[in-house]
Structures are given as C-alpha cells and as structure tokens.
C-alpha cells in the first residue's frame, strides 16, 4: 500500500488526506497545533456557553464545494444553517444594501439598480454548480465550460471600482464593494472584482451558510471521516525539516510557500525556491469577539436579521480604506466585517447574550490596537452598542500569526491576492500544486482557488499526488 504524509490539519490538509485515503493510500496527518482545524477552530472565548469562531466563520464557498458535497459529512455531524438575510451593508443615511439568497429578492430592494444586479448575477448563480468546476481550480488551464466561465469571468477581470460604476445608487455600490473588499486588495486594481463576484455568486446559489455548532464542525466531520477511512492524525507535531517526516511515498504540505522553502531548503529547484521566497503577503486582520447582551442595536432593521454585516460606509470610503491599509497606513475608520452567526445557529448564544464576531482590515503586521476603531465603526451604525458589551476577546495580527503560521503578519488570506498570485498562486505554472520535487505537493490557500473552508486546494493537490503514485 502506498503511503502519504500530510503536513497541516486545516480544511485543505484534511481534504488532501481524505482524497488520498479514499484511493486506498495509507495517510498520516501531522499537525503542529494541539488541535486540528486551522482557521476553522471555535471555542468559548469569553463566557461559558458562548461560542466564537476563531477565524473562518461564514462559508458561501464551502457549502457548495464539489469536494465537500461528495463526502456526505452530514453523517459526521456537519449541518449547514442559513440566516434570514445573508448580508447587509448599512449607510449613514439609514439606507442599506441588503443581500438575500434570492437574486430577485436582492434586486427588488435595490430600486433602479435591481435590473443591473440581475444582469450581473442571474446567469452565473443559476449555473454556479457547473461554473464551480472552473472557478474552484487552477485558472491557467482550458476551461471545461467556457461559455459559463466567460459570463462570470469577463466582469471578474475588471477593477471593482469600475464594475461598481454600473450601479447608480449607493446601496448597490456599497453592497458589491463590501463583498469585493474581502480580497484585502485595492479596489481600483484589475481583478479586484473577482473575489466579490465569487462569494456573491456562490451565495446567491447556496447562501452564506454557517456550520451549526461552530466552524470547527467542518474539520471535525472531515477528521472523523478520515479516521473511518483508516487515516491517522497526530497533533503537536511540528515539521521543521524533511528529517522530521516519517518514511513516505508522497508528502502534501498545507503551509505557506515561504515556509515550504525553508523546510525543503536546497532540495527545491532554484527557480521554485526563488518564487516561493518572493511570495507576497497582503494586509492583516485585527479581530475582536464581543459578548453582547441583546445583540447589536443596528439602526437598519434588516441588519438585525443578517448573518453578516459589512461596516465601512460608502463604496468610496471602503475603497479608500483598502488603499490605506495596502500602503501600510491604519485608517481612522477601517472596513469591519461583523458576523452574527447566532442568528442562523442559536446554540452559540448563552441566554440573551450573543457572540458577535468582528475583524477589521489593517496593515500587515499592524502593532496597534484596533479595538476602539472597530467598536466606533459599529456604534456609528448601531448607537448604544457600547452599552451592551459585557466582554471582549482580542486577536492581533501577531496573534493571528501565532495562532496559525499560515497567517503571516495577520494575513488570513495566506498571501496577497494581486494579479499574479490570484491567477497562478505561488508561481506561474500549469501545475500550481507541484513544488518541483517529486512526491511533494503544496495544498494551502496560497494555491488555487485560494482561501475558504472549501477544501478544493487540498483535493486538487491530492489529485496530483495520486497521478504521481500511479506513475
């Protein structure tokens, strides 16, 4: 029987391990932390019974992931739940962009821009399950569904700021801009529309779902399946060099390119080592979890029913803050993501006290404290919020890097999503999971299709490893 070692037990590492185990490969997963899950871990961070996701929280790309759907993870306790409203982007004048799972319902709330929203999302969202074959894999290849991909991909090539101009009203512009800002990338750059279009399209097809019982349920279910398939998981095992690996036929790495260059050293071909060492990391996240009595008193009523709230003001304001953090400057009013997962999963709350998950976009390696900036931004759209806070838990950018070494400088995207790295990953090649050393493959979110708990990076890397094993 062939053997494989997977380094890292996040969603991608476990996906690679499962794909290999399903092909009758004997798999061992080595995880440096004492707990599996990577960015999908959850815990009671402030009060007993109050459950907070550590990083990954809302999963429009994971709920529709072709690989995860193929695993039957409901048998292992994974249940997806949806809020009444997916996302709201409030504005200072009391209006808001409101994202429903239904394209038609979203469009109906956008006035004159509704027709433009439907033109942008009707076709791609209806075809999303077919389209995902192309957008959830390497982009440097012949597409399986070129017509569907063109309808999605041509707008995705544009800067988000250009695409936003198709909307006449601020509600639609801000709603789109908040989604585009998930890329941690300046919104005037080419391809900056792509991640926003991706999560909006996926959401219109499957919703912005959360995992009941916390994001940890995703990787807990994956680990349970892997064990049933005969795989092994060892925690508290840090791999610093190939000398730390057991004898194995293939190794799949859920680590950053720079970390892999350090681990493999001069075993890597020089051209690959140069590319990996030049790999770039984008802005960081500063996270504050709040325990809030009675929830957030949003001025916009729809925000009180939304699983996600984007706090950043107008499209122009969001674009300005993204330029600032990319330049290494901390804005006074950062873009803030607010997660209210308890609305879809009430088991996360403790009576009338609810867990409110937030993070602000900040410069990479930001050494300051953004707690007050986050609080003030929420208070701006929810007067009285401060008075309801009964506890907080903070994770700084260095804290993110310590929590998960893949989050260099607090960059939870595992790399800057600029044009070269968004298209090709760590280096330009038709096989982005190959590291140039036979039997070794990279599966972290640095590879296509990038961040998320969808497991597709791991599935694709495992396919390359199986190709090698089968000769």
From TrEMBL:
So which residues are the signal peptide here? Answer: none
Query: According to the lineage, what is the superkingdom?
Result: Bacteria
Task: Please give the name of this protein.
Answer: Phytoene desaturase family protein
Task: Identify the taxonomic lineage of the organism of origin.
Answer: Bacteria, Bacillati, Actinomycetota, Actinomycetes, Kitasatosporales
């Amino acid at each position: 029987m062939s053997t494989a070692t997977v380094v890292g037990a996040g969603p991608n590492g476990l996906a690679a391990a499962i794909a290999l185990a399903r092909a009758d490969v004997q798999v061992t997963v080595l995880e440096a932390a004492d707990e599996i899950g990577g960015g999908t871990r959850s815990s009671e961070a402030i009060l007993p019974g109050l459950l907070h996701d550590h990083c990954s929280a809302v999963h429009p790309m994971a709920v529709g992931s072709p690989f995860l759907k193929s695993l039957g993870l409901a048998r292992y306790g994974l249940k997806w739940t949806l809020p009444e409203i997916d996302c709201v982007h409030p504005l200072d004048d009391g209006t808001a962009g409101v994202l429903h799972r239904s394209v038609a319902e979203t469009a109906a709330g956008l006035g004159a821009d509704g027709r433009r929203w439907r033109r942008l999302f009707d076709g791609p969202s209806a075809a999303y399950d077919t389209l995902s074959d192309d957008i959830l894999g390497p982009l440097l290849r012949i597409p399986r569904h070129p017509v569907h991909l063109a309808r999605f991909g041509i707008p995705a090539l544009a800067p988000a700021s250009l695409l936003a101009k198709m909307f006449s009203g601020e509600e639609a512009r801000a709603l789109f801009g908040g989604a585009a800002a998930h890329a941690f990338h300046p919104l005037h750059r080419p391809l900056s529309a792509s991640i926003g279009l991706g999560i909006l399209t996926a959401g219109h097809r499957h919703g912005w779902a959360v995992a009941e019982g916390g994001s940890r349920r995703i990787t807990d279910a994956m680990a349970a399946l892997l064990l049933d398939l005969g795989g092994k998981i060892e925690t508290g095992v840090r791999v610093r060099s190939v000398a730390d690996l057991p004898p194995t036929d293939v190794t799949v790495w859920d680590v950053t390119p720079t970390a892999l260059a350090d681990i493999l050293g001069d075993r890597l071909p020089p051209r690959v080592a140069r590319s990996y060492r030049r790999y770039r990391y984008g802005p960081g996240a500063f996270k504050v979890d709040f325990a809030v009595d009675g929830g957030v008193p949003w001025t916009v009523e729809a925000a009180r029913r939304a699983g996600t709230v984007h706090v950043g003001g107008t499209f122009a304001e969001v674009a300005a803050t993204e330029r600032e953090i990319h330049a290494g400057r901390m804005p006074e009013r950062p873009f803030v993501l607010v997660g209210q997962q308890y609305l879809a999963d009430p088991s996360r709350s403790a009576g009338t006290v609810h867990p409110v998950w937030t993070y602000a976009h900040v410069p990479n390696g930001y050494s300051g404290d953004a707690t007050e900036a986050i609080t003030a931004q929420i208070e701006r759209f929810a007067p009285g919020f401060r008075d309801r806070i009964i506890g907080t838990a903070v994770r700084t950018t260095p804290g993110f890097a310590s929590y998960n070494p893949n989050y260099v400088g607090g960059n939870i995207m595992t790399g800057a999503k600029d044009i070269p790295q968004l298209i090709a990953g760590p280096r330009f090649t038709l096989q982005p999971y190959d590291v140039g050393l036979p039997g070794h493959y990279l599966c972290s979110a640095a590879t296509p299709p990038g961040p998320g708990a969808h497991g597709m990076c791991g599935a694709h890397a495992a396919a390359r490893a199986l190709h090698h094993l089968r000769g």
